[in-house]
Amino acid sequence: MDKRAKIYIAGHAGMAGSALLRRLTAAGYDNVVTRTHAELDLTQQAAVDAFFASAQPEIVFLAAGKVGGIKANNNFRADFIYQNLMIEANVIHSAWKHGVQRLLFLGSSCIYPRDCPQPIHEDYLLTGPLEQTNEPYALAKIMGVKLCENYYRQYGARFISVMPSNLYGPNDNYDLENCHVLPALICKAHEAKAKGASELIVWGSGKPRREFLFVEDMADACLHLMNSDVSSGLYNVGMGDDLPISELTELVMEVVGYDGKIVYDRNQPDGTPRKLLNIERLKSLGWSAKTQLREGIALTYKDFLSRRNHR
Ligand code: GDP
Predict the structure, then answer these.
(1) Residue at 70 is within a domain
(2) In the chain, fewer beta carbons within 10 Å around the N or the C end?
(3) Of the candidates 261, 273, 277, which has an alpha carbon nearest to the alpha carbon of residue 221?
(4) Ligand 1, atom 16: closest residue by C-alpha
(5) Distance of CA 292 to the CA centre of its chain
(6) pLDDT digit string (tens) for 194-245?
């Protein structure tokens, strides 16, 4: 990517988009355009088209979308499928129509079949049924992958897709009902410590395994890919390592400094048993993650504290 290229980051206010913005700025890309949700509603086709016609970005990072944890995905099923589908269709089509040179679409590891072999290779896409708790979100994200693939196949548009494992890091959402497990555990451990509570409630059995990726590493991987000569395809991004939620809970408690009892609420869903990504495709392009989980959690907890003014 040319340092002067005009780059549009869709979703720059979110955790992934804001990490991309930081990474691009640090690397000297200073011609980045952004729009807040209030300025541009990406679910509106005419508004998105008008934006591309006037802003004329050359490169697009599509990090916008409705995201959330296991409960939000399950409860707001219509919102997850509708909003994500509309955003992807509008942005990807307008990008092609207005001559965008390169586009990177950000998906999620939940697009793969629930019970596929581990670690999950990119080629396992669409080989079996999806996990039910997040099927609407996963289906929408699969459509994003297929939009990129087919705009490349029909028109030669250089649109690629990146599938990160569970992301965490600065600027995450800590709304306990709707957020993902890692920010939930940071917030719960912090509050339990502050209140002197004797126990901390963890949803489900604690047995599902998850792979976590620090969002700054994800942003670095995206930049690496966009500076490589790949023109199409799907790329998993992860650490190459996972752990059960029970061990993650202990690790978060250590970092936060809380040592109460862990209580599992088995009335809450476990979701998919495991989704460890095979990261060989990206590794073969010379990229691997740098931030170990403990270090990433410590950095995230610091960000949590600074945002809460609890220093
Ligand atoms: P998933 O990876 O799509 O299932 O999304 P989550 O990050 O929301 O959940 C991952 C796993 O952590 C699931 O097995 C949850 O049941 C479990 N979990 C344990 N405690 C919590 C919690 O407080 N919040 C969330 N979101 N998940 C939790």
Answers:
(1) yes
(2) C
(3) 277
(4) 270
(5) 18
(6) 999 999 999 999 999 999 999 999 999 999 999 999 999 999 999 999 999 9
Residue 43 within any structural domain of the chain: yes
Do 60 and 103 contact (CB within 8 A), yes or no? Answer: yes
Coarse DSSP helix, strand, coil percentages of the chain, rounded to the nearest 5 percent: 45, 15, 40
Number of domains in the chain: 1
Ligand 1 mean position, distance from CA 35 (Å) = 31
Q: Where in the sequence is the domain holding 32, given as residue range(s)?
A: 7-170+212-239+275-290
Q: Measured from the CB, is residue 109 less than 6 Å from ligand 1?
A: no
* CATH number for position 20: 3.40.50.720
Q: List, for residues 19-61, the tens digit of each pLDDT value.
A: 999 999 999 999 999 999 999 999 999 999 999 999 999 999 9
Residue 16 maps to a domain: yes
Strand partners, 200: 262
Classify residue 18: in a domain, yes or no: yes
**Residue indicated by tokens 């395809």:** 233
Q: What is the pTM of this model?
A: 0.97
Write the DSSP string, 179-225. S-HHHHHHHHHHHHHHHT-SEEEEES-S--EE-EEEHHHHHHHHHHH
Buried b (16+ CB within 10 A) or exposed e, 118-154: bbbbbebbeeeebbebbbbbbebbbbbbebbbebbee
